[in-house]
Amino acid sequence: MSLTDRESHFEFGENWKSYSKTIDQKRIDSAIEGIKKLFPGGLAGKTFLDIGCGSGLHSFAALSLGAASVLAIDIDENSVSATRALLGDRAASWIWDTKIVSVFDASANELGQFDIVYSWGVLHHTGDMWRAIDCATTFVTPGGRLAIAIYAATACDNLWKAEKGFYARAPHAIQWTIRQAYMAALLTARTVRSWESPMAYMRNYPKIRGMNFSHDVHDWLGGYPYETATATELHDRVCSMGFTEERSFRLPKTFGLFGSGCHEFVFQKMP
User: Fold this and answer.
1) Are residues 131 and 173 located together in one domain of the fold?
2) What range does the domain containing 241 cover?
């Protein structure tokens, strides 16, 4: 089975559908701040394509920031269902649409081109990350922006790839056991390093783009397929396709024992 096939992927959509039940105004505000960090000039009047829409939280944040329209796409029917429910409930009067489609199967002829193409923490889970990035660039209108977040490469990449492949196929009871062990180790390590109590860390976690600690852990441990890149690789690859880097938030090199964060980039397509 190809890694680009839906059946080979971790059930991201089930996780996002569960997470969507926790979305409240605090999480919405955090998601809005996350997009404002990438686009400090705002989104007013911009067309917005959300590749890998997940729960739909960031599609809603884009509409809240004045995007003229949003198209949210995902290969996972559960993610699209969660997005449709959220936008139907909170953004009924705004212009938006959803579509179940892989980034590999979609085309600009069918979907159009957009002022903003946004794909945060998605393309490294497609099974062919560099081709997925290439595909995403085709949806950007000349002068428009591409915003992507990709896992930073670490020394533990092969370890995590093996763990994720096992976790994604494991029974729920085994997944639960792995989650508990990982969370205990992570929280202990954070307490030792920063003296931040586990309760305080989990209480403040929604400030990270509106996320939820337990759902994020499940997503991290099961996030298969899994690929990474260095910031230099990402910059050079996208700029070679007629883009210039407008803004980036690059992570320092880490060993990666507890995982990897994402390099964030905003590129502008040359007119």
Assistant:
1) no
2) 6-154+226-269
pLDDT digits (tens, 9 = 90+) for 77-111: 999 999 999 999 999 999 999 999 999 999 999 99
Residue 245, token pair as written in the block: 């880097």
pLDDT digit string (tens) for 2-46?
888 888 899 999 999 999 999 999 999 999 999 999 999 999 999
Which residue from 260, 261, 214, 228 is spatially nearest to 15, judged by alpha carbons? 214
- Contact predicate 139/108, CB 8 Å: yes
Helix (H) or strand (E) holding 83: helix 77-90
Pair 126, 78 in one domain: yes
In angstroms, the Cα distances linking 154 to 20, 168, 233, 237, 243 are 30, 21, 14, 19, 26
Q: Report the CATH number that the domain containing residue 238 is assigned in CATH.
A: 3.40.50.150
Instruction: HSE, CB side, 13 Å, CA atoms: give it for residue 147.
Output: 22
Torsion of CA 119, 150, 230, 159, to 10 degrees: -150
Same domain, 150 and 170: no
- Strands of the 96-100 sheet, one edge to the other: 96-100, 69-74, 47-51, 114-120, 140-151, 262-269, 243-249
Are residues 74 and 181 part of one domain? no
Do 31 and 68 lie in one domain? The reply is yes
Return the DSSP state at 219: H
